[in-house]
Amino acid sequence: MTTAAPDLADIEIRDPATDEVVGRVRPAGAGQVDDAVGRAVAASSGWARTSPGDRAGLVKDAAAAVRGVAEELARLNETETGRPYDDGLGGVLAAAGTLEQYAELGPLHRGRSLQGDWSATDLMVPGPRGVVAAITPWNDPVAVAAGLIGAALVTGNTVVHKPSERCPHLGRRFADLVASFLPDGVLTVVDGAGPTGALLSAHAAVDVVAHVGSIAAGRAIAEAAAGTGAKVLLENGGNDPLIVDDGVDPVWAAGQAALGSYANGGQVCVSVERIYCHAGVADEFLAALAEEATRWVHRPSAEGEKALGPLVDRRQREHVHAHVAEALQAGATAHVGGAVPDGPGAFYPATVLSGLTPRMRIVREETFGPVAPVRVVDSFEQGLAEAADDPHGLAATVLTPDMAHAQEAWRALRVGTVKINAAFGGAPGGAAEPRGLSGSGFGYGPELLDEMTATKTVHIEPCPPRHDR
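RESULT FIELD:
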């Protein structure tokens, strides 16, 4: 049972492009969290006994329904988080694809057997862990929720979902739609911010807490789980470096850096957060990057331009600008951007900085905004060493024509994903396991099915014949 109650004042949601109030939600308190978890517990046994094929069929039907309302969800995403419609639509369609993927993979998830003596067998059988608390973020809310919820459902778990308080209507619309295809209690939703998430993650009847969000929230969840025994899956964000090696085409490299830094306003878990550029290409790279930045615009984009929506809210803009202003005050140079624009909303321009030092906050911490901080280094080795000197461990990108450098980089960087010569990308079904402050556990791909299940070893021997006396 939960023991504390959060502040039950309504949460106000504003359109980050206009500052207009677009909704309010009442956060769930202890009683509502207890009720949601209780329903999940009550549904758990029946859902676990449902055949994998039947579970997968229901999830696949839900995926088709998500496709059917993709435009509605993308518009709602734009209204609540500011993500441009086309980008948001891509995220919703990716979510539907993820549900379909797990519907295919779920029935194929299997264990192993070991042969002992001729008459004995050991079975290693995966089974559902029970109740999964899925606590999801605002920056790609539908796609992330689809991954965690889909993997949990097809492996026989029930789910209580807490979407981000910054897009609660979107989160509830998606989850309620999926839940409409499932038995009662298999998927429930609770609204709220950090206090509600704390109640949910510390609930004694929750068996798994799967969280994508901040380092502070992830740390609090891990501490709570230490008391309840729940398994924890965390993706806490990162401070992802990009290394630009000597010999690359600086214009191409600038395009990759801009994409990595500015896509979704720099509000992607694996956004480029800091750039180490070899001095041999630095001048051309910085000029090309500054030109690229001017193509990311807040108005409807024309040919050759890309839409840059607002940040999720003004609080996030204040955080981003504090990093930039502190760097400028300490001697950095803004080639483009770096100032808060006039007018409504939470817009911030695509920004390019240089003249950075390793200890600046914009280098050491996650900014999560459309900022490309460039540090010029004398060698690939220096860039790699500085990129690796970081307690986060989510992802990294290396742009290099030298495959020996690529090989050294992917081995030396203590992160879950290393991308060589591409800021984004990866095969469908790919998985990653963050390190350090960035979290723990696989959050995507077939490996997430393993995370959502517990393996039970069963040793079987025949009973000896009865000897009548």
